[in-house]
Design a protein that fits this description.
The chain has 6 helices and 6 strands. By secondary structure, it is α+β, with helices and mostly antiparallel strands. The chain has a domain at about 130-184: Nucleotide Exchange Factor Grpe, Chain A, domain 2, CATH 2.30.22.10. The strands form 2 sheets. Strands 1-4-5 form a 3-stranded antiparallel beta sheet. A 3-stranded mixed beta sheet has the order 2-6-3, with no helix packed on it. A hairpin with a 2-residue loop joins β4 and β5. α5 (about 85-100) runs antiparallel to α6. The mean pLDDT is about 85. Belongs to the GrpE family. Its main location: cytoplasm. Homodimer. Keywords: Chaperone, Cytoplasm, Stress response. One of its GO terms (molecular function) is adenyl-nucleotide exchange factor activity.
């Protein structure tokens, strides 16, 4: 036995750490290579982990950037949604201002100017899908009409007989219902 050849001092110098080192120490060069390949594998996996963590951080940052840009785009869309419509209405306003600045106009010229301005406004409405609701003679529709009252009429019951104020829709959505009188 090998332990018997050692002096008592050498045997006493054994500590649990040295015993553990001796037990874990590779006995052959193959085991030493395997230990090296394990270290290499650990280093490789740590590198992959760091790479994946960086990719996750990049993806998070990219997601935040997309959310921020989308919020900015929504804010701009809200802010400038009426820009085209507003610019089209400016021509109508200009026509009204021109009519008011005419010095010696006749009633007929005012009427002609108002008719032209109304045509301009109607063209703007058509361009932006604003449709007039003028339901005289139609069945009363509570989704598009607001009944102000009922009147005796020769028309069929529940039929619109008079429009007090026209209504309007925007892309088939009611902006303002028509104010109507309905037959009893």
């Amino acid at each position: 036995m090998q332990h018997e050849d050692k002096t008592p001092e050498q045997q006493e110098n054994k500590t649990p750490e040295t015993e553990l080192q001796q037990e874990n120490a590779p006995a052959t060069p193959q085991e030493a290579g395997a230990a090296g390949s394990i270290d290499d594998r650990i280093a490789e996996l740590e590198a992959k982990l760091a790479e994946q963590q960086a990719a996750v951080l990049y993806a998070k940052a990219e997601g935040e950037n997309i959310r921020r840009r989308a919020a900015e785009d929504i804010e701009k869309a809200r802010k400038f949604a009426l820009e085209k419509f507003s610019s089209e209405l400016l021509a109508v306003k200009d026509s009204l201002d021109a009519a008011l600045n005419v010095g010696s106009a006749t009633l007929e010229s005012y009427r002609d100017g108002v008719e032209l301005t109304a045509k301009q406004l109607t063209a703007v409405f058509e361009k932006f899908s604003i449709v007039e609701i003028n339901p005289v003679g139609e069945k009363f529709d509570p989704n598009k009409h607001q009944a102000i009252g009922t009147v005796e009429s020769e028309a069929e019951s529940n039929t619109v007989v008079n429009v007090l104020q026209k209504g309007y829709t925007l892309n088939d959505r009611v902006l303002r219902p028509a104010l109507v009188m309905v037959a009893k």
